[in-house]
Amino acid sequence: MRISDLHFSDETELTYSAITQCLFKKENENGAAEYNELVKELIKNAADTDDFVASYLDEANAVKHNYYKSECYQIMLKIYDNNKAKEYCRKMLGRKYRTTISDAESLKIGNKNSVMYIPSLGTSTYTRYAILEKNEFYADNIMTHMLSFEGTKFNIYLQDKGEENKIDKVLDNGKYSVYSFDGIMALVKE
């Protein structure tokens, strides 16, 4: 197969432009030569675009060749394999994740002065979330940035509905960016 035979397009052509833009690394990027050769080899050996995508998304291969956290890998996961994308986000949260109960498919954050309900973009009654440092967060091309906030003494509540406001976790003072994907949320401390 040749590079020109790849077809990452959808009705709007957004998929095509998103993937082709990042499929190869720029020559001055770290490890570009080895990575670009690997991608060319995967294309050459693929029967069609789906075969290439399956080979490219092989987790062991991606980790071995150091593109597991790359923009292109994440974009392809999100487009071609929602289940793997969800698992990818779960792995990023690691053992830090906590679970809240969500009737409104949101995470309730606030204090005595104000409350925010941030959509989890999921369909479950449970929301998984983790508080991560900036250097621990790497699923920014899969997850949707919901909002940023800054303040002191913000609580994360165990439930997003009802009058009982049990606190699940208290956030450290500071600025946070909130990302969400399919019921998984990352609160990234800036």
From TrEMBL:
Source superkingdom: Bacteria
Protein name from the UniProt record: Uncharacterized protein
Source organism (scientific name): Ruminococcus albus
